[in-house]
Amino acid sequence: xxxxxxxxxxxxxxxxxxxxxxxxxxxxxxxxxxxxxxxxxxxxxxxxxxxxxxxxxxxxxxxxxxxxxxxxxxxxxxxxxxxxxxxxxxxxxxxxxxxxxxxxxxxxxxxxxxxxxxxxxxxxxxxxxxxxxxxxxxxxxxxxxxxxxxxxxxxxxxxxxxxxxxxxxxxxxx
Length: 174
Known about the structure:
By secondary structure, the protein is α+β, with helices and mostly antiparallel strands. It has helices spanning about 35-55, 60-80, 85-100; strands at about 100-110, 115-125, 135-140, 145-155. Among the domains are: about 35-80; about 85-160, Nuclear Transport Factor 2, Chain: A (Roll), CATH 3.10.450. It is built from three helices and four strands. It has a four-stranded antiparallel sheet, covered by helices on one side.
């Protein structure tokens, strides 16, 4: 057994600062994907060092490492698209595209193709309670053009929550 007393009052659970919502200040800004160039630059520097090591020692492994790292660096530079359309602008474009008044919406950044071109995928619900329409809009995050749009009547059943066909749309809802 240990001679030291077990003092549980010293340990306190706490959220890390970056997860503490009470310290939240201002809107969230999605980081730009051009940050991939930083990693690409580091890979290029290490590839150059490996190439320099190959010229000094004639070690074939250093040459292979230099080639592989240079290819990875090139990919990072090719995939470092500038994110010209932010999440707020994407939501505005999606709202104009679907053709109904939008209530709740959610934006997700996805990547398309081998060069990982960024694209916003926005899920939108109509502003009425419960939402009668929903839509999905995908738009290019580099130049802002709409790549696809789909709208439909909302098939979700809200009757168990007091919404839906049991009550008239205009009254009695929560």
